[in-house]
C-alpha cells in the first residue's frame, strides 16, 4: 500500500478523538445534571420543610375531592357536555366517576355511574331502598347534611333531605347506555366542608351494594384552589421556577410561579448553534409531558416516588422552548406523616449544562481547536514525510542514468532521521552499483586498450612474416591468422567506439543548422550504402531549424541506418523521415524485416543488448555488440530527446523514432 | 648513410618486430625500453627520427615526458607517437607537445613505413630552399606537396603529416565530397569515423587560428567532407 494511503488511515484514527470528546461531554453533562438535580432536590426539601409550617397544607395534603376552579359556564342539563376539561375522580373499580367544579357561588358535581342493573326508585317511597340511589353527605364543623337522590325516570333530579335542613341540590338525572349520570348544582359549602358520596346499587334479586369513591366510607375534604395557599407558595418560589403541591392522590392543591429561563442567566444561549437540537436529542432524557401544563392531577413516576416518601427528580425537554426542565419532587413531610402530599419544584435549565459552564466550554473549544491543529499537523507531517519518501524514491529511480552512469543526487542525505539513514543506505548501495556499472562500462574500452598491444604484436609479426620465405601452406595459415587478427581489430574498435562517442557527446557543442538539409544529404549518401534495398526519404520542403550537434545526429542516423540495413532482407525497404515539431523535430527510420520481441522493446537501447537475429550474420561482418543503439540513445539524450523502437502497426517491420528537442542553448559568451 | 630511427617501446616483441621491419627498409634502428635509457642515449647523439610509445614501463605518461624533453632540445627532430592509446585526449596531448604524427598500434607495418618515409621526405624538403613549381594554389591556399606544407593567405598552417594529407586530398578536387575511407586511405591512417571527425575539427581550428573567417571545409553529413569551390 502506498504511504499516502497508510498516512491517510493513520489520520483517520484521529477521528476517534472527537468520539472520545463526545463521550466525555456526555459524561460531564450527566454529572452536571446529577449535581443540578440533587441541588434542586435539596432546595425543594428546604421548601417543603418551610411549607409544612404553613397552615392548610397539612390538612389538604391527604386525600380529598378535587374541585376544579370553573373556567366556563356549566349548564346543569345532565348531558355532561361542559365537563370535558375536568379530570374525574374514579373509584377503584371504575364504576364511579365524579367531576367537581366550583365557581365563587356554587359547587357543581357530575356523577357518572356504571350500573347495568338499573333499579329505578319508587317514586312514592324514596327512602324505601328498593331502587338505585345516591347518598350525598356534606359535613362541616357545625352540621351534617345528608341527601338521598334517586329518580325513577330521567329528568330533574329528585331527592330528599334525610338529615339536615338544606334543600336537595337541583340537577338532572340522565340514563346512559350502561348506567346513569347525575349533574347537580348546590350552594358553595364552607371551605372546611367535607363531602362523602355513596351510591346504592340494587341488583335484580333485591340485594344491594354500596359503591364509594374511596375504599372506606370516609368523608373527603373538598380541595379547592386557595389563594392563601398559593400566596404562601409564591413567597417560596424562585424566579423562573414553578412550585406545585400535590396531595396523596396526585391532585394539585396549590401552585405558584412560572417556568422560564431568566434573561442573562445563560452564557451558552448565544453559543447555541443549529446543532443544539441534536445535543438535546442525545443528552437530555425525554420524559413524557405528564408534568407539562396545568393539569389538575399529576400522574408521573417522579410524583409517585415522592409520594411514597423518597425524593425524586427528572429531566424533560420543554414543550415550548429550547430548554429542559428539571423537576425535583420531595414528600411534604408535614405533621400528617408520610405519603401525604408532595412538593414539586420545576426549574427550566439550559439544554446543555456543559455549555453553560464557561470553564468547560473553554476547555471544549480549546480541545477542539487543539484537535484541529493536531489533525492539521499530523496530516501535514504525514504529507511531508510522504513527499520526502517519494522524492527519495524518485531520486533513487533516476540515480541510474540512461547511459548507466550513476548520478546519485539523493535528497535527505544529511537528514538525521530514519529517512536520512535510508537515503545513506541508498547512496551506499548506489555507489556500489555505480562502481560496478562503471567497471562494466569501461570494461569494453579497457579491454580494447589492453588488447591493442598483444594484437599489435600479432599483426606486426604477421607483417614481418610476409617478408620471410614461406611455403604456400605456411602462407595460407599466415593469411588466416591475419584474417583473424583483422576481425579481432574490428571487434576491439567497435568496443571502444561507444566510449569514444560518449566522449564526443560530452564535448559536443550545439550549433544552429538545417535538420531537413542534413537528413536530405544524409539519405542521398546512404542510398548507395543500403542498395539493393529500396529507400524512401520523407523530408519536408524547406528548412527545419535545429540547435544541436550535426555530426552526432549524422552518427545516430549512421547507427540507425546500419542497424536497419542489417536486419532488412535484400529485397526489403527502408524509410527515413523527418518532421518538425513545435519544439525540435522527430526522426524516423523504419525498415522491413524481423520484428522486435515485445517484452524487450524497452531495453533495446541499453548497452550490449542485441535482440534481433538478422538475416545477414555472415562471417566477416561487423559483430553485433548492441552498442549502436546505445549510442543513439546517448545522442538523443544529448538533444533532450528520447529514442523509441516499435513494431510497425501492420507488422511489416520496425520503426525507430528519435524525438529531439535540441541541445540547450548556452548563453552566448561575451566576446572580448 | 643510413638514417637512424630510435624506437622507445617497453614491449620487446613489438620493438623487435618494428625494428626488423625498419631494418629491412634500410634504416638503422636503435631500441630503448625505457625513458631513462632513451634519454641517456639521446644525450650523446640524437637519432634522425623517434618513435615513442606513451606508456613506458612504470611511467604511464613517460612518452609525453620524453617528447617534451626532446622537443626542448631539438625542435626539428621528427617525432611519431606510436601507441595503444587512441583517445582523442591522448592524440591531442601528443600533438600539442609537438609530435609530428600520432599513430595507434592498429597501424600495419606497411602503413607505418609509408608514414616514416613521408615524414623523412617532408623533413628533407623543408631543408631545401622552397621551389616554385611544386606549389599548388587554390584561392588563398598554397600547398607545397614536396615540403608537405600548407599556407593560408601566405601564412604557414602548422599541420601534421596526417592533417596535411587530408587537406591535400580535399584540395586536389575542390567541390568533390571525399568520404572518410578516401581521407583515411590518403592519409594512410586506419582510424574510425570519430577520429576523422576530430582530425577535421583540428584542421579547421588551425586554419581559424590564422583566419577567423575560414569556412572552406564543408561537412556533408553521412558522406564526408569537401573543399569549397
Keywords for this structure?
heterodimer, A: 672 residues, alpha+beta, Beta-Lactamase, Immunoglobulin-like, Methane Monooxygenase Hydroxylase, Chain G, domain 1, 4 domains, 7-stranded mixed β-sheet, 13 helices, rod-shaped, disordered C terminus, B: 229 residues, alpha/beta, Rossmann fold, Arc Repressor Mutant, subunit A, 2 domains, 5-stranded parallel β-sheet, 8 helices, 12 strands
Greatest interface and its participating residue counts: A-B, 34 and 32 residues
Count of helical stretches of chain B: 8
| Spatial strand sequence of the major β-sheet of chain B | 2-1-3-4-5
Indicate the CATH class of the largest domain in chain B: Alpha Beta
Q: Gap between N and C termini of chain A, in Å?
A: 60 Å
CATH topology of the largest domain in chain B: Rossmann fold
Contiguous helical run count of chain A? 13
Gyration radius over CA of chain B: 18 Å
Main sheet: strands, sense, barrel of chain A: 7 strands, mixed
What ranges of chain A have pLDDT less than 50 throughout 5 or more consecutive residues? 264-271, 614-621, 668-672
Q: Radius of gyration of chain A from the CA trace?
A: 57 Å
Principal-axes geometry of chain A comes out as rod-shaped
Helix content of chain A: 25-40%
Secondary structure: helix percent of chain B: 40-55%
- The oligomeric state is heterodimer
Approximate strand percentage of chain A? 15-25%
N-end to C-end Cα span of chain B:
45 Å
- How would you sum up the major sheet of chain B? 5 strands, parallel
Q: How many strands in all of chain B?
A: 12
Amino acid at each position: 500500500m502506498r504511504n499516502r494511503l497508510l498516512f491517510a488511515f493513520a489520520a483517520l484514527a484521529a477521528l476517534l478523538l472527537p468520539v472520545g470528546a463526545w463521550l466525555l461531554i456526555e459524561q460531564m453533562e450527566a454529572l452536571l445534571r446529577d449535581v443540578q438535580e440533587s441541588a434542586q432536590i435539596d432546595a425543594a426539601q428546604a421548601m417543603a420543610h418551610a411549607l409544612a409550617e404553613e397552615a392548610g397544607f397539612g390538612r389538604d395534603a391527604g386525600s380529598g375531592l378535587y374541585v376544579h376552579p370553573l373556567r366556563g359556564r356549566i349548564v346543569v342539563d345532565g348531558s355532561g357536555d361542559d365537563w370535558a376539561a375536568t379530570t374525574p375522580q374514579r373509584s377503584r373499580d371504575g364504576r364511579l366517576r365524579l367531576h367537581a367544579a366550583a365557581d365563587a357561588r356554587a359547587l357543581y358535581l357530575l356523577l357518572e355511574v356504571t350500573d347495568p342493573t338499573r333499579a329505578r326508585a319508587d317514586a312514592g317511597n324514596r327512602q324505601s331502598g328498593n331502587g338505585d340511589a345516591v347518598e350525598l353527605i356534606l359535613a362541616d364543623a357545625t352540621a351534617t347534611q345528608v341527601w338521598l337522590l334517586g329518580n325513577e325516570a330521567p329528568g330533574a333530579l329528585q331527592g330528599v333531605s334525610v338529615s339536615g335542613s338544606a334543600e336537595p341540590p337541583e340537577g338532572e338525572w340522565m340514563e346512559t347506555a350502561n348506567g346513569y349520570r347525575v349533574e347537580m348544582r348546590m350552594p358553595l359549602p364552607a371551605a372546611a366542608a367535607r363531602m362523602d358520596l355513596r351510591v346504592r346499587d340494587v341488583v335484580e334479586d333485591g340485594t344491594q351494594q354500596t359503591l364509594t369513591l374511596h375504599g372506606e366510607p370516609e368523608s373527603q375534604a373538598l380541595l379547592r384552589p386557595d389563594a392563601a395557599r398559593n400566596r404562601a407558595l409564591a413567597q417560596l418560589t424562585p424566579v423562573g421556577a414553578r412550585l406545585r403541591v400535590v396531595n396523596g392522590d396526585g391532585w394539585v392543591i396549590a401552585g405558584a410561579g412560572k417556568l422560564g429561563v431568566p434573561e442573562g442567566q445563560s452564557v451558552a444561549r448565544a453559543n447555541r448553534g443549529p446543532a443544539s437540537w441534536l445535543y438535546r436529542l442525545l443528552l437530555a432524557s425525554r420524559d413524557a409531558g405528564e408534568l407539562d401544563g396545568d393539569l389538575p392531577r399529576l400522574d408521573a413516576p417522579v410524583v409517585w416516588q415522592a409520594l411514597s416518601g423518597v425524593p425524586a427528580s427528572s429531566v424533560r425537554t420543554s414543550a415550548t422552548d429550547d430548554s429542559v426542565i428539571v423537576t425535583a419532587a420531595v414528600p411534604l413531610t408535614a405533621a400528617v406523616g408520610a405519603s401525604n402530599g408532595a412538593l414539586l419544584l420545576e426549574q427550566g435549565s439550559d439544554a446543555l449544562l456543559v455549555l453553560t459552564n464557561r470553564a468547560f466550554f473553554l476547555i471544549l473549544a480549546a480541545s477542539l481547536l487543539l484537535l484541529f491543529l493536531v489533525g492539521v499537523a499530523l496530516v501535514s507531517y504525514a504529507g511531508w514525510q510522504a513527499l520526502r519518501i517519494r522524492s527519495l524514491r524518485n531520486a533513487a529511480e533516476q540515480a541510474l542514468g540512461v547511459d548507466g552512469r550513476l548520478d546519485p543526487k539523493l535528497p535527505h542525505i544529511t537528514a538525521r532521521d530514519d529517512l536520512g539513514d535510508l537515503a545513506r543506505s541508498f547512496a551506499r548501495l548506489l555507489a556500489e552499483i555505480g562502481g560496478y556499472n562503471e567497471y562494466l562500462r569501461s570494461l569494453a574500452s579497457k579491454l580494447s586498450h589492453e588488447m591493442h598491444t598483444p594484437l599489435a604484436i600479432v599483426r606486426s609479426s604477421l607483417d614481418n612474416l610476409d617478408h620471410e620465405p614461406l611455403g604456400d601452406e605456411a602462407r595460407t595459415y599466415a593469411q588466416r591468422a591475419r584474417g583473424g587478427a583483422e576481425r579481432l581489430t574490428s571487434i576491439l574498435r567497435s568496443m571502444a567506439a561507444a566510449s569514444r562517442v560518449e566522449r564526443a557527446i560530452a564535448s559536443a557543442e550545439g550549433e544552429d543548422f538545417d535538420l531537413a538539409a542534413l537528413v536530405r544529404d544524409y539519405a542521398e549518401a546512404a542510398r548507395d550504402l543500403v542498395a539493393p534495398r529500396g529507400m524512401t526519404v520523407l523530408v519536408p520542403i524547406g528548412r527545419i531549424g535545429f540547435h544541436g550537434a550535426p555530426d552526432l545526429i549524422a552518427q545516430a542516423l549512421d547507427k540507425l541506418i546500419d542497424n536497419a540495413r542489417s536486419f532488412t532482407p535484400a529485397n526489403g525497404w527502408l524509410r527515413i523521415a523527418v518532421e518538425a515539431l513545435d519544439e525540435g523535430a522527430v526522426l524516423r527510420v523504419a525498415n522491413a524485416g524481423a520484428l522486435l520481441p515485445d517484452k524487450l522493446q524497452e531495453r533495446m537501447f541499453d548497452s550490449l543488448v542485441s535482440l534481433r537475429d538478422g538475416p545477414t550474420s555472415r562471417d566477416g561482418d561487423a559483430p553485433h555488440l548492441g552498442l549502436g543503439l546505445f549510442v543513439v540513445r546517448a545522442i538523443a539524450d544529448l538533444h533532450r530527446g528520447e529514442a523509441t523502437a516499435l513494431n510497425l502497426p501492420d507488422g511489416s517491420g520496425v520503426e525507430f523514432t528519435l524525438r529531439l528537442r535540441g541541445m540547450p542553448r548556452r548563453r552566448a559568451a561575451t566576446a572580448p | 648513410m643510413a638514417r637512424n630511427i630510435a624506437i622507445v617501446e617497453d614491449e620487446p616483441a613489438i620493438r623487435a618486430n618494428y625494428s626488423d621491419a625498419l631494418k629491412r627498409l634500410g634504416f638503422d634502428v636503435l631500441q630503448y625500453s625505457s625513458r631513462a635509457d632513451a634519454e641517456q642515449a639521446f644525450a650523446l647523439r640524437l637519432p634522425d627520427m623517434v618513435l615513442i610509445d606513451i606508456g613506458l614501463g612504470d611511467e604511464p605518461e613517460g612518452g609525453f615526458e620524453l617528447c617534451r624533453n626532446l622537443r626542448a632540445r631539438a625542435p626539428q627532430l621528427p617525432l611519431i607517437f606510436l601507441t595503444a592509446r587512441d583517445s582523442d585526449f591522448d592524440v591531442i596531448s601528443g600533438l600539442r607537445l609537438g609530435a609530428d604524427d600520432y599513430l595507434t598500434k592498429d597501424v600495419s607495418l606497411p602503413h607505418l613505413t609509408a608514414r616514416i618515409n613521408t615524414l623523412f621526405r617532408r623533413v628533407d624538403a623543408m631543408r631545401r630552399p622552397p621551389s616554385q613549381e611544386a606549389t599548388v594554389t587554390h584561392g588563398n591556399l598554397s600547398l607545397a606537396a614536396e615540403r608537405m606544407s600548407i599556407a593560408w593567405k601566405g601564412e604557414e598552417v602548422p599541420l601534421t603529416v596526417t592533417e596535411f594529407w587530408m587537406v591535400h586530398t580535399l584540395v586536389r578536387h575542390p567541390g568533390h565530397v571525399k568520404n572518410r575511407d578516401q581521407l583515411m586511405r590518403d592519409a594512410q591512417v586506419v582510424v574510425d569515423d570519430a577520429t576523422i571527425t576530430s582530425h577535421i575539427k583540428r584542421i579547421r581550428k588551425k586554419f581559424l587560428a590564422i583566419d577567423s573567417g575560414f569556412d572552406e571545409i564543408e561537412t556533408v553529413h553521412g558522406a564526408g567532407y569537401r573543399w569549397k569551390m
